[in-house]
Known about the structure:
By secondary structure, the chain is mainly alpha-helical. It has seven helices and two strands, in the order ααααααββα. Helix content is 50%, strand content 4%.
Amino acid sequence: MAGFRSLARQVRDPRCDLALRRYSLRKCLERFAPYGHRATWDHLCSRAGFDPEDRSVDPARLVAALDELEEARAVWLAYEVEFAERRRKEKHDGLRRPGSVDDWHRLTWGGFGVAWCDDPRVHPREPLAEVLRRLIAALEREPGTSCPVCRGERLMWRYDLDHEPSTGPVCTDCGILVPRPVLTPAALADARRARLLVSA
Length: 200
C-alpha cells in the first residue's frame, strides 16, 4: 500500500497519465483528510478550481490541490510531534491519566477527521493549513464559547454523525464538528439546548 509521499509523487509526475494522477490525489485523502474524505475532496476541488467529478482535470490544478493538502499535513504532523513529546514528559512526571484533549486527539491520530464536516458540501473556505492552525491554537488555550475556526457562535448538537464521536457540537456557519475540549461547559450546554429548540 502506497504512503502519502509516494502518492504525492505520482500526482506531480508528468509521466503518469491524468487518471492516475487524479486517483493518487484521491488516495492521499485516505492518509490525511482533516474534514473527512468527501468534504476534504470537495474543499480541495473548490479551492483549486475544478469540479469534484471532473475526470480530465488540468494537472496544474491537481498539483495546487496537493500543495494545499501537503501544507496542512505538515502543520498537523508538527502538532502531533509536539503532542507526543508533551505526553512523554507528562508520563515521566507521573501524569498518567490523559485529559480531554488527549481523548479527542486519540480519535484523530494521523489527521483524519480533525475538523470533521458531516455534510461534504459544508466546510470552511480558508486554506486547510489555516484551519488547522486555528484549531491547534484553540486546543492549546482555555476553552471558549465559539467555533475555533470561523468564530461562529451558532453551535448545534448533532446526533448520528458519520464519525467518532458520533454526537457533538457542530458549527452551523462552517460545518465542523467542534472538538469538545475547546468549548466551555456552558457553550456545550447551549449547543444541546439549541438542538432541543430546533427539534421541538
